[in-house]
Amino acid sequence: MGKLVKGVWHDVWYDTEQSKGEFIREDAGFRNWLTVDGGAGPNGEIGFKAESGRYHLFISLACPWAHRTLIFRALKGLAPHIGVTVVSPDMQTKGWEFSQPDPLYGFDYMHQIYTQAKSDYTGRVTVPVLWDKKTETIVSNESSEIIRMFNDAFNDITGNQQDFYPHALRQEIEQWNEFIYPNINNGVYRCGFATTQEAYEEAFDNLFSALDRLESHLAASRYLVGNTLTEADWRLFTTLVRFDAAYVGHFKCNLKRIADYPSIQGYLKELYQYPAIADTVDLYHIKRHYYFSHNMINPTGIVPKGPELDLLSPHGRASLR
Ligand SMILES: N[C@@H](CCC(=O)N[C@@H](CS)C(=O)NCC(=O)O)C(=O)O
């Protein structure tokens, strides 16, 4: 765990001293957009045109943010067009590292990809990273934006028109994202990375009241936004599928398990059983990364053998609207 300062790697844990023990996630540093014609997206520089074989994803199978991008690559038929490199689940003093030298440059560490893009980069070295092989730089390291690029920029190339961010539903999708990101997606991290009792308890209370609200919503609604599966569901899914295996124990999110919420559990199973999704979920990487890498939280590095998860039994959601 660490960060780059003016292009030099420093092995440091998150600094929570300025924020009374609260974990505050740093904003992503590369925010360009890949578009149909290479025009600028909502922010960033022009020049990143959707082309087959030009872009590469660097991800961790453990990371919920990176997982979103792998899911959209699968859902949108992008596997033949965008390559993927998976980092080792073990993130130690040099940050994310490759199990074998990376296929583009032969690097050993993810921070070298960042300094290849910007030699004096300052910031955390996070995954996912969307890399442009043509201009040899990072297009984006912000998962919420990468999934929107994948949602529509390659439609002419793939012929896949499925839309997880339809115009008519954008306002409702944004409202769910704004609720789920701080309380649930980042909420589990705010529990796990808190360094004071107060910061932990506040994050914990927010997390479980958000899950209670979700449980009652999903009792009557098949997906977050009615009967339409949207990006908001996939953003939620990557946290839910890690919850019982990692967050309950490692991040002390232990008031209840997802398995104790009947509607959320059914919803989780339905999304897990959606075509091509189970193949994107790697519980070995998930448990190994969290329990073995965060030695400030779990100094022995012992990875628990359990729990048993039931993600394949019938989800019983088909009659909901
Ligand atoms: N805003 C980023 C967050 C990505 C992120 O924080 N990834 C974590 C892995 S789960 C990471 O790489 N952390 C390394 C670090 O903070 O040093 C996104 O959603 O893409």
Automatic annotation (TrEMBL):
The source organism is Photobacterium pectinilyticum
Gene3D superfamilies for this protein: 1.20.1050.10, Glutaredoxin (3.40.30.10)
CDD domains per UniProt: GST_C_Omega_like (cd03190)
Q: Where is the GST C-terminal domain?
A: 166-293
Q: Which SUPFAM superfamilies match?
A: GST C-terminal domain-like, Thioredoxin-like
Name-wise, this protein is Glutathione S-transferase family protein
Name one matching Pfam family: GST_C_2
Lineage of source species: Bacteria, Pseudomonadati, Pseudomonadota, Gammaproteobacteria, Vibrionales
